[in-house]
């Protein structure tokens, strides 16, 4: 398909990718957190940077919060502040992995007092959602064990179910719980929510307001992630994505950087399962940490990567693909699939942006905007935001 023939489907108009507040703070490796000029010192400055991404791309209308990293006194005022910049506050992410008391678990801990502390934290997060207008409470747990026999792994599942049930019961009518999974780290023998099946089983037991969150970096090497996407969409339990890229483990690199073909294959299943339709329950979000690159351009590049692969997936000739599949024509089916992947959609997207008053090249527009120099010069003093800040 030549670029002159590309007609961008209306489905792309509604594409929205939530950006995480923590992507704009300092991050690093297990060994060092790196400081960089212009890093936000407050949640308001994080929202300013997120608003710049949306201003240039039109793709990032909401910002996810992380509690307690983004705690403020007045969340209704924070909501007004964000809306004044043209974005809204999105998913509220809980944190039960940076307190000494959670060394041996949080919602799964054997001691009731520790579980109570973790539950109360999540109830506080829901109170924050009430004030911000957020729909989703996202839970990722570092809970697990490092050695066989360290704890009763079945009892931990029972305790998790009980804890989640209490949190779920507090949700408002239009609020949801999304449970993220990760197959290892920081627990290495077993993780309490290691895979989509565990998350599915736990959320299925909770009810219709509980869904699975799929982080693209949270799988063992060689995992067919698009199959998981297809299955969860088929079951009506895919609530959200955390998009990133990985080479070895949970690397949290720019989505599409390591394996753009994988991102395309995932988006094919998202489109196939209705994930881009207006009433879809699927929320697309980034979960990345920019250690080497500048943070705002990193987020711009990321949302553009998702947009490009979403368009390629929308351009897949489903009729030709279906015919080849029905005829068991393996090579023809694969050729149709690969034709869509290899289609250069960048010129068409540049024209599409200009039609909507957006810069044709958001990356170049950011570089020319002077915004990075502005924040480097003005965000001096104070404590920069980052992991744990």
Could you characterize what this model shows?
- With 389 residues, the chain is an alpha/beta fold.
- Helices cover 43% and strands 11% of the residues.
- The protein is built from 13 helices and 10 strands.
- The strands form 2 sheets. An 8-stranded parallel barrel has the order 1-2-3-4-6-8-9-10, surrounded by 6 helices.
- Helix 6 runs parallel beside helix 7 (260-272), helix 7 (260-272) packs across helix 8 (295-314) and helix 9 packs antiparallel against helix 10.
- The protein is globular, with a radius of gyration of 21 Å.
- It starts with 16 loop residues before the first strand and ends in an 11-residue tail after the last helix.
- The mean pLDDT is 96.
């Amino acid at each position: 398909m030549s670029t002159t023939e590309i007609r961008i489907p209306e489905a792309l108009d509604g594409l929205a990718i939530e950006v995480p507040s923590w992507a704009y703070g300092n991050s690093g490796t297990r060994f060092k957190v790196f400081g960089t000029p212009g890093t936000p010192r407050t949640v308001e400055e994080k929202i300013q940077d997120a608003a710049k991404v949306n201003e240039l791309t039109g793709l990032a209308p909401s910002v996810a919060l992380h509690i307690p990293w983004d705690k403020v006194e007045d969340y209704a005022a924070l909501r007004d502040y964000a809306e004044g910049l043209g974005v809204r506050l999105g998913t509220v992410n809980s944190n039960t992995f940076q307190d000494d008391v959670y060394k041996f678990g949080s919602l799964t801990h054997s001691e009731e007092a520790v579980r109570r502390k973790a539950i109360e934290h999540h109830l506080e997060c829901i109170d924050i959602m009430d004030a911000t207008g957020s729909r989703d409470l996202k839970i990722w747990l570092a809970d697990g064990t490092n050695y066989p026999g360290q704890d009763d792994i079945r009892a931990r599942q029972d305790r998790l179910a009980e804890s989640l049930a209490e949190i779920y019961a507090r949700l408002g009518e239009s609020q949801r719980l999304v449970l993220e999974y990760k197959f290892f780290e920081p627990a290495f023998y077993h993780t309490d929510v290691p895979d989509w099946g565990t998350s599915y089983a736990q959320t299925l037991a909770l009810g219709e307001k509980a869904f699975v969150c799929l982080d693209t970096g949270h799988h063992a090497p060689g995992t067919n992630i698009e199959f998981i996407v297809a299955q969860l969409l088929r079951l009506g339990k895919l609530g959200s994505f955390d998009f990133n890229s990985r080479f070895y483990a949970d690397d949290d690199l720019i989505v599409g950087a390591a394996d753009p073909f994988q991102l395309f294959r995932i988006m094919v299943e998202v489109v196939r399962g209705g994930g881009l339709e207006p009433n879809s329950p699927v929320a697309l979000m980034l979960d990345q940490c920019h250690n080497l690159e500048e943070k705002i351009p990193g987020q711009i590049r990321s949302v553009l990567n998702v947009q490009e692969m979403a368009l390629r997936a929308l351009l897949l000739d489903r009729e030709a693909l279906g015919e080849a599949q029905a005829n068991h024509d393996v090579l023809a089916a694969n050729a149709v699939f690969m034709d869509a992947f290899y289609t250069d959609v960048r010129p068409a997207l540049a024209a599409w942006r200009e039609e909507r008053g957006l810069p044709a090249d958001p990356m170049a527009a950011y570089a020319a905007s002077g915004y990075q120099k502005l924040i480097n010069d003005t965000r001096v003093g104070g404590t920069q935001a980052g992991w744990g800040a």
